From TrEMBL:
Gene Ontology molecular function terms on file: RNA binding
CDD domains noted in UniProt: S4
InterPro entries (UniProt xref): RNA-bd_S4-rel_YaaA (IPR014330), S4_RNA-bd_sf (IPR036986)
Keywords: RNA-binding
Signal among keywords: no
Protein name: S4 domain-containing protein YaaA
C-alpha cells in the first residue's frame, strides 16, 4: 500500500491520480475514471470531482493508495 500525504482538507479524484503519479495528464485521469477503472473505498467511482479525504483508499491498476496527513 502506498501512503500519499495531502496537505489540504480534501483533493479531487482526478487531481489525486496526478498527485500520486498514477497518471501524467488530467485527461488520462478522466478517461480511466469514466471507464470505471478506479475504485474509491472498494467501490467503482465515476466522479472526477469526488472529494477524497484522509483515510480514503484509492485502487488503480493494481496499486493501492491511502491518503494520509
Amino acid at each position: 500500500m502506498n501512503e500519499i500525504k495531502i496537505n489540504t482538507e480534501f483533493i479531487k479524484l482526478d487531481s489525486f491520480l496526478k498527485w500520486c503519479g498514477a497518471v501524467v495528464l488530467g485527461s488520462e485521469a478522466k478517461m480511466y475514471i469514466l471507464e470505471k477503472q478506479v475504485l474509491v473505498n472498494n467501490e467503482i467511482c465515476i466522479q472526477r470531482g469526488k472529494k477524497l479525504r484522509v483515510g480514503d483508499i484509492v485502487e488503480f491498476e493494481g496499486e493501492i493508495y491511502k491518503l494520509i496527513n
